[in-house]
Amino acid sequence: MTDTNYISHDTAPQRRVRHFFSLEDANKSLVLVRRIVADVIGHYGRLVEVHETVEALETAGRLGQVEDVRDELVATADRIRICLEELEEVGVELCDWELGIVDFPALADGREVRLCWRADEPRVTHWHELDSCHLGRYEIATLRSARGARATTSMR
Questions:
Q1: Which domain does 93 fall in, by range?
Q2: How far is CA 4 from the centre of its chain?
Q3: Fewer Cβ atoms within 10 A, N terminus or C terminus of the chain?
Q4: How many domains does the chain have?
């Protein structure tokens, strides 16, 4: 007899501990983040090229060649997924695959913000509010509290 109230450990929602970065921690993590983001940018460029090739082949009616190219499309997308998982393990979010814009969760003045880094920048020099994207970035000097913010909270 099967108990329908039983929930396996494998299907139960996992709780993650969210890490809030200090500015110093964010900059230290760039050693790894920079390499992963460079891979994503490269893979994303290839993904766009391969997608355009698939569309061109379909338009030309060369359906026999589409499957081979689609396999490369899937493999490239899988490489990007692996990179995104690695960034998630670090505790950051990649917001723009083409420009390599990364958000680092941080606390400042008792509120959650995002420290923001772009792949062509030598270090984390900007931040933005949660409800604005990287287009609303401010210089880090306007966020004094982010320099020493460190905390963890539990989240799903």
A1: 16-155
A2: 37
A3: N
A4: 1
